[in-house]
Amino acid sequence: xxxxxxxxxxxxxxxxxxxxxxxxxxxxxxxxxxxxxxxxxxxxxxxxxxxxxxxxxxxxxxxxxxxxxxxxxxxxxxxxxxxxxxxxxxxxxxxxxxxxxxxxxxxxxxxxxxxxxxxxxxxxxxxxxxxxxxxxxxxxxxxxxxxxxxxxxxxxxxxxxxxxxxxxxxxxxxxxxxxxxxxxxxxxxxxxxxxxxxxxxxxxxxxxxxxxxxxxxxxxxxxxxxxxxxxxxxxxxxxxxxxxxxxxxxxxxxxxxxxxxxxxxxxxxxxxxxxxxxxxxxxxxxxxxxxxxxxxxxxxxxxxxxxxxxxxxxxxxxxxxxxxxxxxxxxxxxxxxxxxxxxxxxxxxxxxx
Length: 353
Description:
It contains 10 helices and 14 strands. By secondary structure, the chain is of the alpha+beta class. α7 runs antiparallel to α8. The longest helix has about 30 residues. About 10% of the residues have low confidence.
């Protein structure tokens, strides 16, 4: 009797999960429909392949990804070859992510390469792998060949080679490669932060844990700016922070000048990137330290060969400004690594002024 009740409970739970996933899959598919519905699909779905893969996932206990793969296999299709890193059920069964963001998470766990466990073990530690999510990569952060152990983004590949058939490989992982907090989602913001990779060798150039910590710190800074009224600058900073951190891997001491109004946020990406960098110094300065600097002191910014200039300073009783702009809210945030000063308006780029 107890065994029968247990099986009924499992069947009920599985039915509920299937219904929820079906709704999510339909919603994701609707959002993905192109405007030109007359265009034929260029990537036909091999339903038999995905059916076999779904059965293999179920046998290994990955029921959620198995259901999604069966209901909406196009989520995992972007190229001829695919490697899916399936997240175990317990890590995503209670997710409250909206469908569009959950789809992004799944794409971040799918690579356009067919990689078996042996293929992964042959990669150098620190190698970065492309994903279906635009311009986002994952990194192989740990390899122990003798134990056939691999971690990606510090997450263990717990069930290697669940499925190897045709153009598809599937491995099971303990948890998502990126943690997302649905309470901090804003339209247009990208909360999946990929590890910093060397653009020449596609290998990790700094310890992944250190990189994750730095990304988390900057995420907190962006939220703090937004909650303190510097919304437009927070949006601009968020749009370019990935590239800034990739170009400045040792950025561990920083001064940020946050303008109250940042109209440049609507500008093209290259200009926005340059103007945001103009408001960041690779050195921490408190308000007192800035005030003690003599007039005409040059402050190095993240824009190569572009400096801010102290006017007034310790030589003048009236106080000081920077590039003609006053600090109206000094040290709205201060830590060992960061200090943020609120300024009355954005600095002007000497190249465009």
